[in-house]
Write a structure and sequence with these properties.
- The chain is mainly α and 435 residues long.
- It folds into 2 domains: 131 residues, no CATH class; 218 residues, MetI-like (MetI-like fold, Orthogonal Bundle).
- The protein is 66% helix and 5% strand.
- It has a 3-stranded antiparallel sheet with strand order 2-1-3.
Length: 435
């Protein structure tokens, strides 16, 4: 009986130890799940802080402070000879008309320095608005009408609250006189905040209030077209050959290893390759979507090849066996059965690769796409820039107004990336098949 009692106590002890081990295991699993939730929450929190920071700094770039002035289109200033010659109209001194309207609103301003400060209320490019209006409709010469002109970047920042008013005059770029003048215009209903169409329709500019992203958007679009046209067919053909037709030997193994290694090469190396080969050897034009697209296509090839091979491997072997069993050739089997079933994965990998290429800056800097480009590119061989490079240029500018331009451009780039990744998810959910 004593021996049986000892065995029962030992069994009870083992059961207690087992229960303790189970409790510790379950507690460890709960802690692991908790750590995972905390990690996700931390990542989402950091991402949220980043997005809030970007949006809070950039949303004001989509609006612009404008000043309404009663301008007299003086014929003696615009067209003294009355010929209505477009060259004469384009070369007129429109700043003189703007200054006359400002002095009419503030007749006490007489000194040369004060007049210059008064003219500084409006943008240095405000005269372009008048010139374009006169060229479009010369009949307005000799008339007086209220025209809304973009304010200078300092005044725009002041009205948006980025330049404080309660600091000494020496600590800000807006003088006390300019603050008094703009407040007087604001009280008279001549200051308004309107949609900044210039930001969405113009190219780059030295003046922050006139700078836009349309040139960079068009350059990005043209560059992505070249990248897609060059990389997609070549990458898919390579993946099909390696996965379906190539013999398994040391040479194909060497090719596969090198493709995987190329996917990990820093992007700036591809930029150096483009600089040496496309620009140095072939003499292609610098800072063009054509060269930029060729460089990004080289960088994108390994990624699309790897994604395409993974999509082809995901097709069940029974599909190939069934096609071959009914008499289809290997080529027909691949192009009529395997490739259509792998298309969703291939397209998803291609879109993700294009999204990755969309955010690249280093290789494009190496081929000269960092140049200051004012005009919107009209073709693949025109000088252009892309959104990431435009963001890089604006981030390096000293003017405070370029800070909001930089953040707004990042918002546009993120919108492009979200759309492309969303399209990839949509394609996968729409065409993916469960085996």
């Amino acid at each position: 009986m004593t021996e049986m009692a000892q065995q029962r106590r030992a069994a009870a002890r083992r059961a207690e130890l087992a229960q303790a081990r189970l409790r510790r295991r379950y507690a460890a699993e709960r802690r692991f799940r908790l750590y995972g939730v905390l990690a996700i929450a931390l990542a989402i929190g950091v991402l949220g802080i980043l997005l809030v920071s970007i949006v809070s700094k950039g949303y004001t770039a989509f609006v612009q402070t404008e000043i309404g002035l009663d301008l007299t289109f003086d014929p003696e200033v615009i067209d003294p000879e009355g010929t209505r010659d477009p060259k004469t109209l384009a070369g007129a001194n429109y700043n003189r008309i703007i200054l006359a309207a400002l002095q009419e609103a503030f007749p006490e301003v007489t000194g040369r320095r004060e007049r210059r400060a008064l003219l500084g209320l409006v943008s240095d490019g405000a005269w372009l608005v008048l010139r374009n209006r006169v060229l479009e409709d010369p009949s307005i010469i000799g008339t007086t009408e209220r025209v809304w002109l973009p304010a200078s970047d300092e005044i725009d920042m002041l009205m948006k609250g980025y330049i404080p008013r309660d600091v000494p005059e020496s600590a800000r770029r807006v003088s006390d006189s300019q603050i008094a003048w703009i407040d007087a215009l604001d009280e008279a209903g001549r200051v308004d905040t309107r949609l900044n169409t210039a930001f969405l329709t113009r190219g780059d500019s030295r003046e922050p209030e006139l700078a836009g992203i349309w040139g960079a958007v068009v350059g990005t679009f043209l560059t992505m077209i070249v990248t897609l046209v060059l990389s997609f067919p070549l990458a898919v053909a390579t993946a099909v050959y390696l996965e379906e037709f190539a013999p398994k030997n040391r040479w194909t193994d060497l090719i596969e290893v090198n493709i995987n290694n190329l996917a990990a090469v820093p992007s700036i190396v591809f930029g150096l390759l483009g600089l040496a080969v496309f620009l140095g050897f072939f003499g292609l034009p610098r800072s063009t979507p054509l060269v930029g697209g060729m460089v990004l296509a080289l960088m994108n090839l390994p990624m699309i090849i790897i994604a395409s091979r993974a999509a082809l491997k995901a097709v069940p072997p029974s599909i190939r066996e069934a096609a071959l069993a009914v008499g289809a050739s290997p080529l027909q089997t691949v192009f009529h059965h395997v490739l259509p079933l792998a298309a969703p994965g291939i397209l998803t990998g291609t879109i993700i690769g294009m999204a990755h290429a969309l955010g690249e800056t280093a290789p494009l800097l190496m081929i000269g796409m960092v140049a200051f480009i004012v005009d919107v590119p009209g073709g693949f061989t025109d000088a252009a820039t892309v959104l990431p490079v435009q963001i890089f240029l604006w981030a390096d500018s000293p003017e405070r107004a370029f800070v909001e331009k930089t953040s707004a451009a990042i918002m546009v780039l993120l919108a492009f990336l979200v759309v492309m990744n969303g399209l990839a998810v949509l394609l996968r959910r729409r065409f993916e098949r469960r085996w």
